[in-house]
Every structure is written in structure tokens, then in C-alpha cells.
Amino acid sequence: MIICECGELVGRVTFKDYIKISANPSTRIIGHGNCGVIFNFFDEKNQTSVFPEKS
Questions:
Q1: Quick one: pLDDT at residue 27?
Q2: What CA–CA distance (Å, rounded) separates 51 from 8?
Q3: Burial call 12-46: b when 16+ CB within 10 Å, e when fewer
Q4: Which residues contact 50 (CB under 8 A, 6 or more apart)?
Q5: Beta partners for residue 45, in sequence order
Q6: pLDDT tens digits for range 7-53
Q7: Could you give the dihedral angle defined by the CA atoms of residues 49, 20, 15 and 42, in that order, rounded to the nearest 10 degrees?
């Protein structure tokens, strides 16, 4: 299991997408469906969010 930066366990609430990384222009990744954080395990960069932050 992965613990997201929002504090929840990433389990069944995920989405799949394709992003460009340094090794490949189209790499399949997963993201957390509740907060939108994308996990990029390939480039070891910081996680990015695809959903706008709530204010």
C-alpha cells in the first residue's frame, strides 16, 4: 500500500493515466482519485496534482 500526501491509503480509489517521462513519451502511471496526486515512480520527481486545490 501507498500512503498519499493527503494522509489516506491509496488502494481502490485510483485512476490510471499516461504522462511523458524522461525515458518514454507515454508511460502509464497511477494517481489518487480523492486528491488527484500523480505518483511518478520512474523519474523520482515530486508528485504532482491534477486536480485544483480546494481553498
A1: 82
A2: 16
A3: eeeeeeebeeeeeeebebbbbeebbbbbbeeeeee
A4: 17, 31, 36, 38
A5: none
A6: 888 888 888 888 887 777 888 888 888 888 888 777 766 555 555 55
A7: -90
Give residue 7's region: left, alpha or beta (phi > 0; psi -120 to 50). Answer: left
Cell 486536480, residue?
51
The DSSP element (H or E) to which 40 belongs, if any, is none
> Of all helices (H) and strands (E), which one includes residue 52?
none
Can you read off the three cell numbers belonging to residue 22? 524522461
At 35, which amino acid appears? C
